[in-house]
């Protein structure tokens, strides 16, 4: 009987501590900030970004900042309209010339907005 109570107590302790840990911890979240987008845009303009890196950051919705979400959507639209998926593996830019110009303008606008917010 003592062995039964010992096993029952240990199991209760392990299960109880697991439940407490699961209730008190939160799921990890990635929060995209403006400097992340600027780094990605710079890499894309210098042809140093991979397609998977682009889609990982641009494909993740930004819920905490409406302006950054609109920039992300615009960048996604640029990829749809001007993306060159098949030529990226050959060392060519991610976007065609028109897309590069629009991405540069988007990057400059985001950078200017960040400068105004920090001033």
Q: How would you describe this structure to a colleague?
A:
With 119 residues, this protein is mainly α. Helix content is 72%, strand content 0%. The chain has 6 helices and no strands. It starts with a helix and ends with a helix.
Please give the count of helices. 6
Mean pLDDT, rounded to whole units? 89
Give the N-terminus to C-terminus distance in angstroms. 72 Å
Structural class by helix and strand composition: mainly alpha
Low-confidence stretches: none
Broad shape: elongated
Extended strand count: 0
Helix content: over 70%
The Rg value, from CA coordinates, equals: 24 Å
Largest sheet entry: none
Query: What is the H-and-E element order?
Result: HHHHHH
Task: State which percent range the strand residues make up.
Answer: under 5%
In short:
Helix content is 72%, strand content 0%.
Draw up the topology in text.
Blueprint: H1 2-24, H2 34-45, H3 51-58, H4 66-82, H5 85-88, H6 97-118
Helix pairs in contact: 2-3, 2-6, 4-6
């Amino acid at each position: 009987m003592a062995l039964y109570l010992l096993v029952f107590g240990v199991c209760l302790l392990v299960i109880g501590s697991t439940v407490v840990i699961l209730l008190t911890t939160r799921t990890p979240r990635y929060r995209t900030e403006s400097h992340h987008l600027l780094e990605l845009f710079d890499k894309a303009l210098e042809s140093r970004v991979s397609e998977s890196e682009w889609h990982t950051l641009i494909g993740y919705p930004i819920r905490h900042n409406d302006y950054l979400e609109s920039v992300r959507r615009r960048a996604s639209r640029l990829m749809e309209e001007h993306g060159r998926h098949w030529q990226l593996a050959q060392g060519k830019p991610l976007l065609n010339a028109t897309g590069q110009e629009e991405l540069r303008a988007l990057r400059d606008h985001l950078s200017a907005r960040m400068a105004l917010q920090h001033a």
